[in-house]
Each structure stands twice: as structure tokens, then as C-alpha cells.
Amino acid sequence: MIGSILKRIFGTQNERNLKRIAPIVDAINALEPTVRGLSDADLRAKTAAFRERVAKGESLDDLLPEAFAVAREASIRAVGMRPFDVQLIGGIVLHQGKIAEMKTGEGKTLVAVMPVYLNALTGRGVHVVTVNDYLARRDSEWMGKVYRFLGLEVGCIVHGLNDRERREAYAADVTYGTNNEFGFDYLRDNMKFSLNDMVQRDLHYAIVDEVDSILIDEARTPLIISGPAEKSTELYNRINRIIPQLRPETDYTKDEKSRTVALTEDGVARAETLLGVENLYDPRHMDLLHHVHQALRAHTLFQKDVDYIVKGGKVIIVDEFTGRLMPGRRYSDGLHQALEAKEGVRVENENQTLASITFQNYFRMYDKLAGMTGTADTEAEEFAKIYNLEVVVIPTHKKMIRTDHPDCIYRTEQEKFRAVVREIKELHEQGRPVLVGTVNIDKSERLSAMLKREGIPHQVLNAKHHEKEAEIVAQAGRRGAVTISTNMAGRGTDIVLGPGVAQLGGLHIIGTERHESRRIDNQLRGRAGRQGDPGSSRFYLSLEDDLMRIFAADRISGLMQRIGMEEDEPIEHRLISRAIENAQSRVEAQNFSIRKQLLEYDDVMNQQRQVIYEQRREAIKGGDLKPVILDMAEEVLDLIVQEHTDEKTYAEDWDLEGLGKDLFRIFGLQPDLSPAALEHTNQTGLREELWDRILERYESREKEFGETIMRDLENYILLQTLDSLWKDHLLNMDHLKEGIGLRGYAQQDPLVAYKREGHAVFDDMISRLREETLRLLFHVQIQREDEVQTLRKEQEEQSMFYGPAGGGSTRREPVKKTKKVGRNDPCPCGSGKKYKKCCGR
């Protein structure tokens, strides 16, 4: 009551928004005579002048009236279309970073031109996002004429382009493309090994066409790049055969308390002999070394019928806390395959997530986001909560005169379709065009068969050929046309009435079923009554429709039985209409909950993703990673010392054996850790002494390899380790998410548990990243001068997910030649020891 009174006094939020925009529209219109008098060259010269003003600090808001006036005049000259005042309003709303809801036929494609032109003046690029490749290509060519007339470059991202073509398209002032292409390019860029191979620039400003379809309907499905976890399973079996030949304590040591196992120096030499390789720590054999460690863990730390069982030819994990089997769950990092090889069952190849992101989190990365659609107001709450986007309903250019008839409800689907065919036949004979919407392909084919039996010519739309669809939709308004479509959202083509059709009543819309979302129904209705044209619509429903059957059947069925309906007799009643709307509202709320939950779970991953991608970009910039590596070394050393020693006890009570193992495993150090040697040393003194030894070893290796090779190695090892662990982490998080819902049975909030455990898993991954990077860096050996370049080339080839990368290459200094050192040769560090006993460990 009070709310309605306040609205009458102050107006709605939407009315206040439009009122604030009105003076800006007046300012644009006031400039039109002056701009119209400019020559083509003078009009084009405005772009350079505007850019100069922006560079000097003038805001885009201040520049808006002039830029919009120039863009409108360019539209007239380039494509023969002059934006109406309501289209100017829509353009201003888009520039403000809001959603413009504009009815079908109001010219949304032209509306985007003005805010795109204005925001492109910054030189940071503008993305226009469409629902399919056809619309991206069509709009980039059609509206591209306006941008090119004004001196801007236009690019288009569609499926099948290689990296060079994509990079050029993204470098343009305006880039058209689909939501999938933009999102996947972001993910692929963050799997590249060189900044020069990346295709996207920073995400500045995006206008999303059919914003409800892209940001809501498709938001339940995240973008995922996946691939096989291993190229071949034979390596697992090969490694498995050598593990039984390694001797406990002699070739490897096991710590059951910490559940770790490590090769000794003799074990490394024996494994090299068994595998037929000269140096297991050669960079080329990193993968081989990893497999040996995992196979060793499988044989020594994991017991059959304790940690896992073999059932039906599969290795099934046993939950260590409940003792229950966990089918479908797999150990990561190749461990599960090592167990399969150990047990002689089929070693399975996994399709592993390599990178993923939701549309919500991708589009929220843009500095400014806007959207346009014919139907967004029903989802205004979701746009506000998820994307912080306000919906502004733009008035139509001409008054809407479409007649929306009440729904007709039948008892059975067969009765409903018979009624639909009767109405189509009647209207077809009158010459009125009819557009029929169905919820799926099966229903459209069923209706098509019924029309064929009646001899009624018609067209059926499907999602296979967008070009053909646009042509059919464009012809759907001609006299007597009958068109069946499964979904009218995002067709991008107006239905223009043919000669004489307006006098017959215009286009008639028939809906054969209510969709789960009222918005989809409104999109179908919106195809009639464009730009002041006459038109009408009616929905035919039955109690057997999915929506009615699941959400509203009992109540409506009882009502229809009380009325005593006969076959083929419809019912029109406000209670039924209300029940249907309530059913749709419940489904919308349920779908919103699903999307919100997906986003809440992905927000956990998104924070982790940003940390990892930022770390990757720092690494591939090719800068000096020495400070990063030394920071890692200090952190790991501190953890090792704290784990094995205690400031409050004597050295003889410390875990000196464990300390020695960790120092050798990670840093390749073998200091004298006997109680006698540490008699007068406390924890702090030991830590400082060990740090000096680590620095000496690091500097010795840097001197041995040369600074150039050392920097390349640090870069290569960090990236390789980061990518490997990140892929495993994604797999672990997928598994965690799959089973987390069961926590609800234990009165735990699954989301809270996922956040807590996901954070712990991420911390563990970061810890492993430090240790693995240091372990490889302090043990790796370079035997040929071209090895780093070869590794770099292999690395870059791995990053190419489609077509040749093209473009520039990273320039590097010549690699210093190093003499190959044998294991029994004197160590080049000058220690006087044999190489294998010193730096070659």
C-alpha cells in the first residue's frame, strides 16, 4: 500500500533512470545539425580528436553527447539507419554498465554501436558478445561499416581461427565473438608458455547481446578444457616391472609415519640401469622420475584390502575414516594408475580437467559489463545479485498493440495438438502468418507431421544452420507462412510483415507449451507486434506437459474434474493461469538456486585460479625468478627445521635422520648432522648454517650452468611443476565437489566444508609446488648446450591447442656451451670430489 503510494509520488526506479537520461538525449539531438554539416573526412577526423581528449584525461561521460552524435551520423552514412531517441537511451544505459531491456524489433544491434564507439576511444578494446558464430560474423560485417567509416578497426572471433588470427582480432578496437570463444581463449591463454603466444588483451568493456541467454541460461554449465591425464598407459606398466627389483633401505627409504618414500643415491643409479637412461635427473626424464616415485609409493605405502581393494577389474579406494568403498573416486598425480599396474588390472586413461571457469566469473572480470535483451526484467534480481547489473526497461519507439490471448488448457497432449492444428489451419486459410513455438525437437517434428497430413505447407527451424534459420525467420511474416521453431531466443533477425499482412491482423504466435522460465515465453511472444505492428499470441497447454505435470497437475486436474470438461474442450480460468505462473516462479527460483550454488562453489576455485594464473604470468614474463626461488628455499628450509628440531630440547633429541633425508631429497645436501657435530648448535644456529650451505650449493650450480641457463631452468621447472600440480589440483577439487553433498547428512553445510577442505587442498598444492620446484632445480643436470632451448620449444608446442600459434618468438641470449661431465669425473665446482658424490647427486 505504502509502496504503491510512493511510486505514484516519486515514480519507479526505472522511471527515475529514464528521467536522468532525458537531458543527455536532448544534448545529443542539439548537436545533430552541426554534425550533419561535416564532410566524411571531417566526421572521421573526430575520432582522432576524441582520442586525444581522452588521453588528456577527459572522461567518457563528458564526451558522450558528441561521440553519440558522431556515431549516429556515421550510422546514417554507412548503413542508412538513423538511431531513434529510444535507441540513444538504450546506448546510454549500455555505456553506464547496465542492462537495456528492449522489445524485439527495436534495433538492439544498432543501439550497441554508439556505446561501443565511445568506449573504443580509450584504445583498450571493446568486446561485443553474441550467442553464435553467425551473428558475430554478421554483426561485425554489418555494423563494422560504421566503425570503419569512423577509422576504427574491427575484429571477429569465430571457431576455427588460429592464434595469429585471434591475436589480430583482439588487437582491434572492436571485437565481435561468442561467449564460448571469449571464455575458452581466456583459459587457453593461461595455459600458454609465452606472453607472445597469448591472444587476449586485458578485459576492458563488454556488451553482451541476449544477455539473459548467455549470463543466465548458459551459466549452469562451466567452460571446461579437458584432456587425457597421460598420453600412454604403457609407461605405468614399464615402471611397475622395475620396482620389485629395488631393495629396501639400500635403494630406497620409507617413512611410514609421514607416508613418504625416497630413492637413495644407489637407488637412483639402479633405476637408471634398469630403465636404460644415463641420468634420471636429466630435464628430459622429469616425467620418468615422477613415475618412478609414484610407482614406489604404490608398492611400498599402499596396501591392498587396506587402502584399496580390487573388485571387478578395478582398483577401488577405501575411505580411511569410514572403511567404506568410494567407487568413482581416483587418486591423482598418476598414483591410481600406478596401483592399477601393480595389481595387473587395466590401466585407465583419465579425462582430466586442465582448466575451467564459469561464465559468471569470466564476465565479472571485465572492468565494465553491459547487456541487452528483449526479456531481462523477470531476472532482475539475479542480475543484481550475481553480476551487480541493474536492468533498465527502455520504452518502445511506437506503442505496443499486440493482443495476448488467455492460455487454453486441455486434459491431454493429443487434444492440445489437435487444437493447435485447427487454429493454424484456420489462420493459414485467412492468409495470416503463424509462428509456432515448441519446447524441443521431438514436439516440433510431431506437429510438423500433423500439419503435413492436413496439407499445410510450413518450415521447421532447428539449431544446426544459423544462416538458414535467419533466412527462414526473415520470411516468417509473409502472407500464409507457417513456421515451427524450437526456441526463438537469440535468432537476431526480425520478422518483417509482408504486404497486406498488417491489415489481416499481423503475425500470430502460438506457444505449444509453457517453458520453465517466463522469460522464454516472453521471447516467443515478442516476435509479434514489433515497431507498432499488429499481432497476437496464445499458449496451448495440457495437463501432460512437463511443467504442469510436475508442478501444478494435482490442483488444476481437480479443478478441471469439478468443472466436468469433455474431450477437446479447453478451459480458461484465472486460477489456472495463476497456478501456471506460480509453477514457473518455483522453477525459476530452483534454477537460480542451482546457478547461485555453482557460482558459490566456483568462487572458491576462482580465488585459487587467480593466484595460480598470476603466478604463471609472472613466470612467463621471462624475468629474473632468482628472488622467487630463494624465497621458496627459505620457506621450505624453515618448515623442515621446525618439523625435525625443537628449540627447547637438545640436538641429541632431534629427528636428525628425518632432517638429513629431507635436506638431501629437496636440496641435495648431506651435511654432518651427528650429535657431536651439533653439540654446541641451537635451532637458530642450525637453520643459519643450513641456509648458508643451500646458498653455496645454489651459487655453485648457477656458476656451473651459467646465469642464462639457470634463469631458463628456473622458468621452465617452475612452469612445468605449476601446470602439473594445478591439473592434479583441479582433479582433486572435482572429486571433492562430487562427494561434498553427502556432508549434509552429517549436519554439515557442504559449501562451508568445501571451502575449508578446498583451502587445505590448495595450501597442500602450494607446499608441494615449492618442494617439487626446489627438488628438481637442485638435482637437475644439463649435459648439452641446446637442451634448454629444446625444452622451451617442447613447452611452447604443448601450449598450442588449435592451429599454428603464429606471431613473434621470445628472443634469448646464446646458450653457453658446457662440457659433458661423467658421474666419475672430478666435480666442476672445484670441491675435489667425484661429480656423482658432489653436485651430481
TrEMBL record:
Positions of the UniProt region annotated as Disordered: 793-841
SecA family profile domain mapped to chain residues: 3-572
InterPro entries (UniProt xref): Helicase_ATP-bd, Helicase_C-like, P-loop_NTPase, SEC_C_motif, SecA, SecA_CS, SecA_DEAD, SecA_motor_DEAD
Predominant cellular place of this UniProt entry's protein: membrane
Membrane topology, from the record: Peripheral membrane protein
EC number(s) on file: 7.4.2.8
This protein's UniProt keywords: ATP-binding, Cell inner membrane, Cell membrane, Cytoplasm, Membrane, Metal-binding, Nucleotide-binding, Protein transport, Translocase, Translocation, Transport, Zinc
Keyword Methyltransferase in annotation: no
Domain Helicase ATP-binding: from-to ranges: 89-247
Gene Ontology molecular function terms on file: ATP binding; metal ion binding; protein-exporting ATPase activity
Assembly notes: Monomer and homodimer. Part of the essential Sec protein translocation apparatus which comprises SecA, SecYEG and auxiliary proteins SecDF. Other proteins may also be involved.
HAMAP family xref list: SecA
Similarity field: Belongs to the SecA family.
Stated name of the protein: Protein translocase subunit SecA
Organism: Desulfoglaeba alkanexedens ALDC
